[in-house]
Specification:
By secondary structure, the chain is mostly beta strands. Helices cover about 0% and strands about 30% of the residues.
Length: about 325
């Protein structure tokens, strides 16, 4: 129990002679911190279990575990250290960072090229240097309302990123934070004051191809701000789609293609008719649906929606889903 030791490098591990034979990692319940380099460069590991007792994942703890396909971070974790999962190129699909996490280290998920979606919790106030750099598989990113700064090169060369949502508290974006995000065409900025930008924030990005949705009252302000004014600024961005503060709606399958089913404790009783509002990443309403509530929730035909990120609102509850 307690904290695991820190190691200067993987070569200092007591089990270094057997490191390539290890395929499964099960951390004992009662461990509170995973030490620096504890499982770094365990290149044949395909499964890792982290118990709810862990509060800290140390620097380079799982760096270059290249065969690891997924990781579940328990909601006991408050700190993810520098380079903790860097170069875990085998990680694929969705990554959910729980809302217990308050510190995301530099380059924590650098070069996790197989990740396709990302949930950043409202407990995080800043995104650091290269935290998600070169995560080429990401297609959309939502920066929660709690984040005030995005560090240098935070999303450098996320070449698959097409849409970006910036929360209400964001005040500054660091140098080259989104440089090389060449597919980016949609940004929704919820703050009425344009965030200050470091050098080359959008280097190698075609600004004229980006639709920038902002609060209607802030259109003129963005049109007068350097760099932002080079985008196609439109009004209508709304905080309605910030699902981080309210996650009572469960939506599946997610990502979806033709249909989604909504379940939530806040849905009316079976047999009732309810109205669901769907908005896009810019906060614009794309559909209103009358739903018959059943034992299994409510199903919506979304086959007519183009690929992208969407939000569903039922009463005061909001959920997010992706169309492939």
């Amino acid at each position: 129990t307690g904290a695991m030791p820190d190691y200067t490098s993987p070569y200092d591990l007591p089990w270094i002679a057997d490191i390539t034979d290890i395929t499964t990692i099960v951390i004992q319940n009662g461990i509170t911190a995973i030490g620096t380099n504890a499982f770094s460069e365990h290149i044949n590991v395909t499964s890792a279990t982290i118990p709810n007792s862990v509060t800290t994942i140390g620097e380079r703890a799982f760096r270059a575990c290249i065969a690891l396909p997924s990781i579940t971070i328990p909601n006991s974790v408050t700190t993810i250290g520098n380079n903790a999962f860097a170069n875990c190129i085998g990680l694929t699909g969705a990554l959910t960072i729980p809302n217990s996490v308050t510190t995301l280290g530099t380059a924590a998920f650098l070069n996790c090229t197989g990740l396709t979606s990302l949930t950043i919790p409202n407990s995080v106030s800043s995104i650091e240097y290269l935290t998600f750099g070169n995560c080429k598989g990401l297609t959309s990113v939502t920066i929660p309302n709690s984040v005030t700064t995005i560090g240098e090169r935070a999303f450098l060369y996320c070449e698959g990123l097409t849409s970006l949502r910036l929360g209400t508290s964001l005040s500054a974006i660091g140098e080259s934070a989104f440089a090389g995000c060449s597919a980016l065409t949609s940004i929704s900025a919820l703050t009425t004051t344009p965030p200050t930008l470091g050098v080359d924030v959008f280097d190698d990005v075609t600004l004229s191809a980006i639709t920038l949705a902002v609060p209607t009252s802030a259109v003129a302000t963005y049109n007068a701000a350097d760099v932002w004014k080079e985008m196609n600024v439109v009004g209508g961005a709304s905080a309605i789609a910030d699902v981080q503060a309210n996650t009572r709606l469960q939506i599946f399958p997610n990502p979806a293609t033709d249909f989604v089913t909504i379940t939530s404790p806040s849905l009316p009783e079976k047999g009732d008719v309810n109205t669901v509002i769907i908005t896009d990443l810019q906060g614009r309403t794309v559909g209103n649906y009358e739903l018959q509530i059943t034992n299994y929730g409510a199903t919506i035909n979304v086959s007519a929606l183009p690929a992208g990120v969407y939000f569903v609102k039922v009463g005061d509850s909001v959920g997010k889903f992706i169309i492939n």
